[in-house]
Write a structure and sequence with these properties.
Number of helices: 7
Radius of gyration: 19 Å
Length: 325
Amino acid sequence: MHDRAGFGAIVLSSVWIAPLGSPGDAEIERLRAAVGAAEAVGIEPIIAVYSFAPETPLTARARGEFSSYAAAIARAIPQLRCMSIGNEPNSGVFWMPQFGADGSDVAAVSYYRLLAETYRLLKRTDPRLSVIGGSLAARGSDHAGRGLPSHSPTRFIEDLGAAFRASGASRPPMDMFSLHPYPANSSIPPTATHPDSTTIGIGDYDKLVRLLSGAFGAPLPIVYGEYGINTLIPPGKRDLYTGRRPPTIDPVSAARQAADYVEAVRLAACQPLVRMLLFFHVTDEARLTGLQSGLFYPNETPKPSLAAVAAAARAANAGKLSCAT
């Protein structure tokens, strides 16, 4: 379905659980099969290695196990060219603790340590492998004790930069920086900007470049690692879904999804440092507590948005999108 949608890359997840120092045989075979299937249709596979908050690798031993796990995947699948390390470490869903007793950002420091150690081992394993870091959520509170512990991407990037400078390293431990620029709800277009807040979306490219330059001395290549707009469910498709949607989603029509995805593709293609824009998902989740942001319904029939988005994706990949405003 990725090829029908005109997409050129797919992210495959491998979740680390302590004390694993390498994936089991079944996990390696699953990843090999998925990588092979992607390559067979000309789609670049990216493997994302991450953990959830209860398994946050905070100790030296845990960091060693995590980095060994990632390197084992690189050795087992030598054709792999890109790996992402961590997922939304500025969110308490994936990384804890976020705050120290004094309210300081301890998540950025501990994530930096993991990223740096994993980067070094991956580069020793395969110097050609591109490592994606960050994968930050688009918003966060920056306040301990306020809802789910989280940091904004603005604050987190600044604190990653401080950890980088304190390390004495000559270059940041990643080849590309990833952001998940989801809007607060699906009614917000990709062109929206946030000049007076710490949120970062696709429309905030200039702000993101300034932050990366300030943190690391020069901006890094950028990946928009997850972006999605949820659609309304037509009456004839309701039996494909289960459960109830959260009231905050504010889903839009398939036509609006198509327009927003086409504009997101255009924006990303015209932002010089952006290397990838990845939609999450290709196919809707059947559970309404999940995301209905795909271009296909759960039974794999296409949404009306598919044709326009596929055309935009193919044009972007071919370098044929106009950046004139």
